[in-house]
Design brief:
This protein is mainly α and 130 residues long. The chain is built from 6 helices and 2 strands. The chain has one domain (34-127). Helix content is 53%, strand content 6%. The protein has a two-stranded parallel ribbon. The longest helix is centred in the first third of the chain and has 14 residues, at 33-46. It starts with a helix and ends with a helix. InterPro entries: Ado/ade_deaminase (IPR006330), Metal_Hydrolase (IPR032466).
């Protein structure tokens, strides 16, 4: 159901494509991202859009979902948190490339009440290490 709904909304947005740079999808945290929205992401790529997604860290298999976003989609909005929990520092190199290209990096949370105060400090520290 979620994939069909995402495709319906994607197609409905196409008349406004001149105002859209990229496509971002949220997904149920208990199901793998890539398999759930693969057709929508591929259609968006084929249509020339940039793609990204959001993954929550406090859900079952969240690190697996974030890894899928990083390695299968090439983008994610949770990458620095993933690095903190897995120690995969090589991904920081990609973040540095993004930063050096002039793309702004945000350190934020969509659930600030649920995030411990040390979360922000850890992410700022990792950013400093770039």
């Amino acid at each position: 159901m979620a994939s069909e709904s995402a495709m319906t909304h994607y197609i409905a947005a196409l008349p406004y494509r001149d105002m859209i740079v990229g496509i971002r999808l949220d997904f149920p945290e208990n199901r793998p991202l890539a398999s759930l929205f693969e057709d929508v992401f591929q259609r968006a790529r084929d249509d020339g859009f940039k793609i990204t997604c959001h993954c929550d860290l406090c859900a079952n298999h969240s690190l697996r979902h974030i890894a899928q976003a990083l390695y299968q989609l090439g983008r994610d909005q949770t990458g620095l948190s993933y690095l903190y929990y897995t120690g995969e520092s090589h991904t920081l190199e990609h973040t540095g490339v993004i930063h050096d290209a002039g793309i702004r990096i945000a350190i934020a949370s969509d659930d600030p009440a649920d995030v411990e105060d040390i979360w922000l400090n850890n992410n700022l520290y990792m950013l400093h290490e770039l």
